[in-house]
Amino acid sequence: MKRLFGTFGVRRIANEVLTPEFASKLASAYGTVVKGRVAVGGDPRTSTPLIKHAVIAGLLSSGCQVIDLGILPTPAVQYAVRNYYDGGVIITASHNPPQYNGIKFVDQDGIGIGEEMEIEIEDIFFDDTPDRVSWDEIGEVSFLPGIVDEYIEQVIHRVDKEAINQANLKVIVDCGSGAACGTTPYLLRRLGCQVTALNCQPDGFFPGRDPEPTEDNLQGLIATVKATGADLGIAHDGDADRTICIDENGEFVMGDKTFALVEKYLLKENQGGIIVTTVATSTAIYDIAEEFQGEVIATAVGDLLVARELKNRDGLFGGEENGGLIFPDFVYGRDAALSTAKIVEIMARENKPLSQLITELPDYESVKMKVECPDELKTEIMDKIARETSQYQVDTTDGVKIFRDEGWLIIRPSGTEPIFRCFAEARNKEDAKMMAEWGISLVKKYL
């Protein structure tokens, strides 16, 4: 059983648990395993410089060469590692509140490290046995700030720039003061869109909104889209690996809807292919695959699991229900920049507003809820819920996914926060809400 790692990396409150000593020791354990050229980057959180310098020190002490990429999106680090380096460390807590930070490790393909390596790193960390090279073998730190420009250029190369330019779309971009501030607004302008920037100044206090792009947190973006008559609103999380859309009417578009939209487009374009997603994703993904010669493979929740399966199965496309889309020919991880570019490309080529493109997809309603739960109680509560729901058809790939006549519900403990998540899907909103509330009640029953 893992003692530190969650769904992807290690997240804790900065300078309380995630101290410089903690970060340096964890990085030296990773460096002991990797032994090579390691890229380091992070998001704009106030604690990122503190954690990053400690990580660099730990890597150097274990004999690694370090390339400091600066402040940039998580997928840009993954792109750089996949093309140039032996490993990577990303300093980010993604969508978590500003007091948190985290450390994500990736392998030479830019994929989040597997469980076997996580356990090996934990063993080194807790046994206090990382390698410490002699003074004359300590590596150097070099800097590569230009990787963001290359990353943007490669995104542009993968879409129909001429069609997007001719469409002259008006887009409101809400970067949430996160890592996308240096990528998405510039990318969209390069593609010929009219861009209005909202919360596009990097700020680790996230003054404009919480870094998680939920409907409640995006009311400013929704109001701006309505007030300006924009064609599209785009929002990202703190480390810019997730993309959420607001349509031209100011309606919030669930992440699994944009996943289904891009899936449909890519399957049609490629005459089929393998789609990888998690057990928490919409039935619409399966419906579209069946219609357009696709095959769906489901994993436990976690974009690194989806990415690894895409690589192993030579998959076409993958993602999660939260707006995290993975294009494996580019980055083995969720990529907000290419997701954004693909969405505007689809709108431009189809010459249809986003609301119409969404209505043409299989129609399911989903409701997402969460409830606080201490980490130490998660396993016990999950076991009790599994026993109580055993009379239903269930899938235990991750948590418990319960199938009922109305639809399905998944109850699972978060791997990044002290909460349980309950996702429900049905043909109508009332049934989905009822099942999600039932899931929350089961968690509360055993708290």
Structure, briefly:
This protein is α/β, with parallel strands linked by helices and 447 residues long. The protein has helices at 20-34, 48-61, 74-84, 115-127, 147-157, 161-167, 184-190, 219-228, 255-270, 284-291, 303-313, 336-350, 354-359, 378-388, 429-446, and strands spanning 10-13, 37-42, 65-71, 87-91, 100-106, 141-143, 170-174, 194-198, 232-236, 243-246, 252-253, 273-278, 294-299, 317-319, 325-326, 365-372, 393-395, 400-403, 407-413, 419-426. The chain folds into 4 domains: 10-146, Alpha-D-Glucose-1,6-Bisphosphate, subunit A, domain 3 (Alpha-D-Glucose-1,6-Bisphosphate, Chain A, domain 3), CATH 3.40.120.10; 166-252, Alpha-D-Glucose-1,6-Bisphosphate, Chain A, domain 3; 255-359, 3-Layer(aba) Sandwich (Alpha-D-Glucose-1,6-Bisphosphate, Chain A, domain 3), CATH 3.40.120; 365-446, TATA-Binding Protein (2-Layer Sandwich).
